[in-house]
User: What shape does this take?
Amino acid sequence: MNSKFKLAIISLTSCAGCENAILNASPEILDFLGKDIEIVYAPIIMDSPPPSSVDIVIVTGAVRTEEDEKKLVEWRDKSKIFVSFGSCSCFGGIPGLANFFSSDTLLKYSYLKQLGTINVNNSPPSNGIPNLTDYIKPLRDYVKVDLYVPGCPPPNTLVVNLFKSIISGEKFTLSKKSVCDECPLNTGKEKVISKMRRWAFSKVDKDKCFLEQGFICLGPATRGGCGARCIKAGYPCRGCMGPAENCEDQAAKMISAISSATSIEEVSTEDLTKLLDLAGTFYRFTLPFSIFKRKIRRG
Ligand code: SF4
Ligand code: SF4
Ligand code: SF4
Assistant: This one.
């Protein structure tokens, strides 16, 4: 009997960055692949017919099309362990920001208004494009998810730990710390913000907490486990690991963190309105997973 775990990697609406993250996790995962785990189906990296069942399915991407919905249910039925992999899959991710618009508006924008688009028919194509769902819902609204592996894309350590836990049978866990807890710029003192600043127009001290300098850094509201990799590379956290432990809404937590660190005497409402695209900034990866979920349109 073949005792290897049979693995399928299924992509919904995604950018393929998550599949690259799996491949990039070598050489560590090469120790497992072939010996303990066999990839039997992964259309993005190999040609093979779909099997009738697998031990594990890794699902990347968000549910944006009716085809995604069908694929999701089909692979849940075929798999013993269902892994939601990457922030699109776990929370809706970047595609989830489209929940601020109707699918009609999205199609019109893409096919009529996009810079450089010339559409002689003056309407989106009526066939040959996938039917969109009305809006993006997290995978957990459709099927039972066994394991969540967040990140855009998930960091190497998480990918390796996922495979190790599958092979060993040990529980796969996520960090309960926040990105701030892992951040080398965290002094451990209460944060104080005296002015809000925009990254593109301000001088940045890369050795001082970005939030204390007035730049939006989602570290306080974001789950750790990435080793604060963006901060170590000189940029604020954008929140890709999703809400911190016991946090229902990443944006609400972040707004609360900012309000605790600012005083109205020093940071005016006018100062705060200089920050552009607040919803996109605070819900960059998690809008469908948040309390709001989407913009409701009347009529
Ligand atoms: S989580 Fe990030 S890397 Fe993965 S599919 Fe979504 S956008 Fe791409
Ligand atoms: S707010 Fe950002 S820069 Fe400051 S300690 Fe937290 S993660 Fe580090
Ligand atoms: S620092 Fe923030 S944005 Fe960067 S990988 Fe970690 S969670 Fe994601």
About this structure: The longest strand covers residues 5-11.
